[in-house]
Write a structure and sequence with these properties.
This protein is an all-alpha fold. It has one domain (3-211). The protein is 67% helix and 0% strand. The chain has helices at 3-33, 38-41, 55-66, 93-124, 128-150, 157-166, 170-177, 182-187, 191-211.
């Protein structure tokens, strides 16, 4: 891997860190609004990346994905420390659990729209290289949204939604979540899963992208 690819990979990694920080902040903030201050007491209602980082999900998995050797499916995805939630503190446990769960992907969807809006404004000033980086960041944010919601596998957010819908107990879910990211890493090597996530992400991204009336002129627009 040459120097340029390494630099690009590190830039994308920094983007991922920022997006994961907002994702976890969204979970923690909504949990607080729903009556549970567990995350606040642990300093998680914060935009400081350090309080959300996890050695495996935030460091090792993303970097291995970026710098994977030839023949291995490369991907830029990762996770942070799960936001702690005490369901007994929630005013409406099932409803609030869904709101807290959806807050993370919802934050990523909002960031996709906001970042694309900023990129569109920057294009007006001819700064296409900067706009191109912002578009990449917006796309990555949407990948995080879709990846988290469309795969109902612990510890992803989609699994929390599935838990509520099927009425699974917190204890049973916790036991399933102990496997961590191992099932995800295996599943991600299945071509259908990659196409499922990337196809959905591309479809949604194109819809949002077109809403900002991007047009040809530079940096591939």
């Amino acid at each position: 891997m040459d120097t340029a690819n390494i630099a690009d990979g590190l830039i994308q990694y920094l983007m991922l860190i920022a997006l994961l920080t907002f994702h976890e902040f969204g979970h923690a903030w909504v949990a607080l609004k729903c009556g549970d201050n567990t995350a606040k007491l642990q300093g998680r209602v914060s935009l400081n990346p350090l309080v959300h980082m996890d050695l495996i999900g935030t460091v090792l998995i993303p970097l291995l994905g970026i710098f994977a050797p030839a023949g291995v499916s490369r991907f830029l995805i990762g996770g942070a420390k799960p936001v702690p939630v005490n369901p007994f503190n929630l005013r409406h446990p099932d409803r609030d659990d869904l709101l807290i769960t959806l807050a993370g992907p919802g934050m990523n969807l909002l960031l996709t729209v906001v970042i694309l809006g900023i990129a569109r404004v920057i294009c007006l000033f001819g700064a296409y290289d900067v706009a191109d980086l912002l578009v990449q960041m917006a796309y990555l944010s949407l990948i995080l949204c879709c990846f988290n919601l469309l795969l109902p596998i612990p510890p992803l957010d989609g699994s929390h939604v599935a838990r509520v819908l099927v009425g699974m107990s917190h204890e049973t879910y916790a036991s399933l979540a102990q496997l961590g990211f191992i099932p995800l890493l295996v599943l991600w090597q299945v071509p259908f899963v990659q196409h499922y996530i990337s196809g959905t992400t591309n479809f949604l991204f194109d819809l949002i992208f077109q809403c900002f009336a991007f047009h040809s002129g530079g940096a591939g627009w």
